[in-house]
Amino acid sequence: MTDEVAFSATGATKIYVDLEMEYVATLIERFSSISNGVQIIQAQPVNDIPLEEQMFVNRMSIKQLLETDWDVNIQEHVVTVRETIIDVDNFFDWYYVSCNICSKKVIPVDDVYICDACNKECKFPLVKYKIHLKVSDKTTVSTFVLFNVVAEKLLDTSAHKLFNRQSRSNTDLPARICGLSGKNYVFKLKLNSYNLKKRLESYCVSKIFLPDETPKIQYKSKNLSSDYEK
């Protein structure tokens, strides 16, 4: 790296370096004590539970899920369920168009997207996933919803790409989404008052795991050991 400094300008420019004047001297003195080095901030662990054990946290069936009572003191409750996708419900479509600023849904009026939340025109609307899954286990059935981040990881492609591959008149589900039917996954759900207090079954999925029962015995024995130590 050289000590040369290069400038690019469209008009005539004068460059002054370290002028010997009172104002410049004051600035140099003021900022001389400020470090210009890069400070590294260590990332804090967001979850102390190993990834392979997360799929067993608060494991329950759909029946148990539907019977879960709402506690006013709990803002959010995390559970996991292992279910089979029996169908993809396309009644509400598999995507929505969102504002690129606030991510709220926008609806076109005369081919112009207006965001009510931002109260202005959305010039760069985004296509995002919102997939309604019908899931089942040995106890009963329910509906889980996959939003953009989770669905994009599961399908390994963006909603924008799938949307552009279809003609505007085609309202069928893309083959990649249809292919989810029959698959078995462990779903991590975040329950809130929307689900528990109002008893609404559209559970939002925050993470999906491929089923692996290998760590299950270790996880259970670890919890038993912790209980005995208390």
TrEMBL record:
Domain named Replication factor A C-terminal: residues: 87-201
What Gene Ontology molecular-function terms does this entry list?
DNA binding; zinc ion binding
Family that this chain belongs to? Belongs to the replication factor A protein 1 family.
User: Does the record's keyword annotation contain Electron transport?
Assistant: no
| Protein name from the UniProt record | Uncharacterized protein LOC105049159
One Pfam family from the UniProt entry? Rep_fac-A_C
The family database entries (SUPFAM superfamilies) matched by this protein are listed as:
Nucleic acid-binding proteins
The protein's UniProt keywords, in alphabetical order, are:
DNA-binding, Metal-binding, Zinc, Zinc-finger
Q: Is the keyword Lipid metabolism assigned to this protein?
A: no
